[in-house]
Structures are given as C-alpha cells and as structure tokens.
Amino acid sequence: MLNKAVFLDRDGTLNEDPGYLGDPEHLKLFPETGQALALLKNDYNYLLIVISNQSGVARGLITKDEVEAVNDEINNQLQKFNVKIDAFYYCPFHPDFNSKDECSCRKPSPKMILDAAKDLNIDLSSSYIIGDTVADVRAGQNAGLKTILVKTGYGSDSFYILQKENYLPSFVAENLTDASKFIIKDFVE
Ligand SMILES: [Mg+2]
C-alpha cells in the first residue's frame, strides 16, 4: 500500500527565515509548527518530508554539516510535540556556481519530491506540498501534488507573483495551522 505525505518547505514555512540558516542555535520554529505537524502525522498518518533549497552551501556561506545540524535541531525541538520529520531532502546547488545537471534537484524542479516518492513509496496524487515561495508551489505542481502557499516567510509576496503568472496554488493559508486544516478538510470530504 502506498503512503501519503505532506512535503514541507523548511525556512519560512516551519521556521523563521533569517537567510542561510547554519546555526542550530538560531533555529526558531513558528509557534504553530509542532502542533500542526503532530496533527497531520499522528492523527491523519501523513509522512512529513522536508524539501529544501539550500544554495547557501553553493555560495560558501554554510556547510552541508550545518544544514544537517539545523535539520536535526528541528526534530529535537519537535520532540515535545511528540512528532518528527520522517525525511529531509535538500539541494545544495545554485546555477551561478554549479552545473545544470547538479542543479536538477533545485525547486521548482520536482526531483527531490519524485526521489522521496520513490524512496518512501508515496502516492503523489493524495499528497500535498506546503511552502512560502513560488518555487515551492511550482515544484508541487510539477510533481502532481496539491499545493498550499503559506503567507509566512515570503508567502505574501509569492502570492501576487503566482496570481500574475497564473500558477495559483490549491489553497492559500495564513500559516501552517491553517494549511493543516485545509488538508484535513480535503481528506474528510
Ligand atoms: Mg521557504
């Protein structure tokens, strides 16, 4: 049997986005993150998969170890909500510094989503992506997911761009709680 998943952007969606976050001590989850994720995973059985562009690595601003330390800290901080991210995927490349081939993982490419779907046996048509940027929504659309734009992070600006370019997401949410409510309602109906 196939799994269903909620793919999650990281910075600006789960946590505040200070730009090129490399120090786990600077990680600040949004206040609603733990509860929203626990609901999706523990009550509705969605796998939680982070899909993140981390071009700070290509730019020499942060290391892969630092990206992974921040990822570990997310799960540390989620422990008190009795939930954890099942898998983290990130793309460390950027077209200014890396080949086209290397950058094939970078959102809006659906590659990380498709890789995760293969690794974890996920049915994309019953899965979602939640993110705050145009690249998140486009990656989800490219992978055949239902897409949710959150207005946290860069979300408000992204909404106008998506609207202008006619790439509207399935739902626009105030934050992760609002996004999780949409998924649950969609699930029940
Ligand atoms: Mg983001």
The total of helices stands at 6
Which whole number gives the mean pLDDT? 97
Report the CATH C-level class: Alpha Beta
Tally of separate domains = 1
- Give the strand line-up of the largest sheet: 3-2-1-4-5-6
Helix content: 25-40%
Structural class from helices and strands? Answer: alpha/beta
Q: What small molecules accompany the polymer chains?
A: magnesium ion
Q: In total, how many beta strands?
A: 6
Oligomer: single chain
Q: Could you give a short account of the major beta sheet?
A: 6 strands, parallel
* CATH level 3 topology: Rossmann fold
Per CATH, the superfamily is HAD superfamily/HAD-like
In short:
The protein is an alpha/beta fold and 189 residues long.
Word description of this protein:
Helix 1 runs parallel beside helix 6. The protein has helices spanning 33-43, 64-78, 111-120, 134-143, 155-164, 176-188, and strands at 5-8, 47-53, 87-91, 128-131, 146-150, 171-173. With 189 residues, it is an alpha/beta fold. It has one domain (5-128, 136-154, 169-181): HAD superfamily/HAD-like (Rossmann fold), CATH 3.40.50. Helix 2 links the parallel strand 2 (47-53) and strand 3. The structure holds magnesium ion (MG). Residues 9, 11-13, 17, 131-133, 153 line the site of magnesium ion.
List the helices and strands and how they pair.
Elements: E1 5-8, H1 33-43, E2 47-53, H2 64-78, E3 87-91, H3 111-120, E4 128-131, H4 134-143, E5 146-150, H5 155-164, E6 171-173, H6 176-188
Parallel strand pairs: 1-2, 1-4, 2-3, 4-5, 5-6
Helix pairs in contact: 1-6
The protein binds magnesium ion.
